[in-house]
Amino acid sequence: MNVRTLVVLCPDWPVIATAASADEAVAVIAANRVTATSPAARAEGVEVGLRRRDAQRRCPVLHIVDPDPDRDARVFASIAALVDRFTPRVELSSPGSLAFPTLGPSRYFGGDEPLAGLVASEIDNALGSSGWFDAVGVGVADGIFAATRAAELAVARPGHVSVIPSGQSAKFLSPFPVSVLGRPELADVLYRLGLRRIGDFAALSVDDVVARFGIEGRFLHRLARGIDDRPSSVGPPSRSFDVESVIDPPAERVDIAAFAARAIADDLHDRLCAEGLACTRLLVVIETDAGERLERVWRHEGALSSTGIVDRVRWQLDGWLNGPSAQRPSGGVSRLLLVPDEVMPARGRQHGFWGGETEADERAGRALARVQGMLGVAAVTVPERRGGRGPADVVVRAPFVGIDGDDGQGRGVALDAPWPGRVPSPLPTLLPTEPLPIQVLDARGASVWVSGRGTLSAEPSMVRFDDAARGDVSILGWAGPWPCDERWWDQLTHRRRARLQLALADGRALLVQIEQGSWSVEAIYD
What we know:
MutS, DNA mismatch repair protein, domain I, DNA polymerase, domain 1, 6-stranded antiparallel β-barrel
């Protein structure tokens, strides 16, 4: 049965949390890619997914900020406190997004639309004081997936509210592209099959979907049909798995209380794993020695690992202990209680017969998870293989998920698409932070260039660096060029370039590229 749900969504929250002005061009960049932007930055052509240098080229005055999930959660706690006035059961999924069922609040405030309008107005007034007037969207629909899509559309609407009538979620979702289902691999397959809209996917029979895509395909098919995103196997635990920690003396600092949360989070995770269960919704209760109490419900689309549980406890603590003075408790934290409010059968991990995960891999993963718990989510990154043409696209740095919380999104698996113009293996090992200018010359000392048909004007003979002390270095061998015409359909992000592999007389091997008539070193083979 679908549950009428209200979702509050602030897409620009990582920027809002930095206390930047709405008129300032700001971008949050992680792993050399833009992850969030301000409206002023978007007006200059800075989009999510752009590389750092491309963003700075489009907007020279762009202010760059590092990601900080702890900061985002701490500031978002004040927004959650505003919504607490409408209902005590607010579910937080991530900083910038929250949800709650509308059954009781809607009756009290006169319906879904009046309720959504009041919530949007309350948050608009809070954000408007800092200049962010059009940063929030409030959507109401059957189930959290449809309500989130409605909230995304509501951001750009007057009043920032979008209410989908009961029973109309499937019709509302039908024109959306299949990419919004959040599974790139599935979306790619559906697109090649000619199923480009959610409505096309929803029209398939359940038996055909399960036969081709398995359990996960059935789950996504439910979303496409407007059915609540929780499968029938999800529900409250059959018995109590509650865990608590009494802190004596009471903790005045977040790190001390979070350290206590680590032990009970591991205990809860181990007890659930022993029963073959995984937590998808968690109630975190924090009490102080002065009798104050703060409850928050945290929701996760997959399964919460022990690291994920500790992160959410830390975010809740940080938002309460370091938030606005009017909301801070008067005493220290004396008790932590974790209640798994919703569980599902754990999917587990399949170990390889040969070359699979070893005990050393598990120990390394748990060590990284502990470091991540102490330093923050963005502080620990690992290489992640992705599809692409250049070395910076094929391997990127991504936050470590944790051995207990693998999200199943293909982390560490290369996407073997055709990728015309892709640099052949082996890939270079060193990537400069910024491309290094270089000149590629022929035997006469004239610049070598690549024609529009992908042919060299002359055979490369030497390279010249900006550093005059190095002088000219002879080229012993070369391969290429590999022309690459990317995103030709988008005038703003279109890139046309060609790459060469060069073996130099001084023993180095370089991957160089030419773009807009200028050569640069893209990567170095070690």
